[in-house]
Amino acid sequence: MTRVVYITGWCRTGSTLLGNLLGEYDGVAHVGELAYLWANGVLRSGTNTLCGCGRDLLECPVWTKVLARLHPGRDDADLRRVATGYEQRHARHLRTRHTRARLAEARGRSRKSPQVARTLSALGDLYAAIGETLSADVVVDSSKFPAEAAALLGMPELDARVLHLVRDPRATAYSWRRAKEYIPAMGVGRSTAYWTGFNLASDWIGAAFPGRYLRIRYEDFAADPAHVLATIAAWAGLEGAPPVSDEATATLGENHTVTGNPDRLRRGPVRIRPDLAWMTGLPKGETMISTALALPLLSRYGYPLTGRR
């Protein structure tokens, strides 16, 4: 049975770094935002086509093997048709607005439609092919679609866990103000609206499946990465010591992430430390907008109303 740790929450929360650190545990493969494999790798319509190893996704030996396992003998045109069909079904059934419906199915309170079942079967096959190709017991997927996370919990062929990563909405809004290589910028209002929606939907998962859900804050991870990694490892059943020193330094090796923060292409030593630049860098007016939009969830996650500590 394939074991999957699915990272959900909003973007710019450190999920790429956290996923790559989890990928340093024995038997664990972090594959980045796997939901974009078909758009980025096969259809070439996504934000970038690079694997985390630095090669093009269709030239990476890992992803070429994965696709060959999934669809042996398919030519490029056939593979594009498969990718187009999957992308269309994902958009219809696995976006954030579908979280409640997927949760109801996962809990056995409603039946999956044939199209939903087909989409999830293809996703299960993809995880299995990744595990076989990379000889991994655990696949870490940082796609961050709450509906997809919810659906995984209802798949008996998977041992799925949902890791909910939260960061102060004003920090993510500050990060989104700047474009980052292949990732465009986003306004504070839009970023915080997404933050609220994605995190609220992720909370629904925790309420429905508390034993298979863990929420952590970026701020706690950045302040004490060894402790937080040990907590995650114990919850997810990962073996070994946290891959980070007492000085909060880790050494990252090669990964095969589909997409995510451009920092996924970095290797070697990395120092993990809190990033508090937003406290002075985010203009007061934008801080107030973000605070107002996120207000219902701030106290739940332990964030102050002022945006200052």
UniProtKB/TrEMBL annotation:
Q: Which InterPro entries match?
A: Gal/GlcNAc/GalNAc_ST (IPR051135), P-loop_NTPase (IPR027417)
Q: Which residues form a coiled coil?
A: none
Which is one Pfam family of this protein? Sulfotransfer_3
Molecular function terms from GO: N-acetylglucosamine 6-O-sulfotransferase activity
Q: Per the UniProt entry, what is one GO biological process?
A: sulfur compound metabolic process
Record's protein name: Sulfotransferase
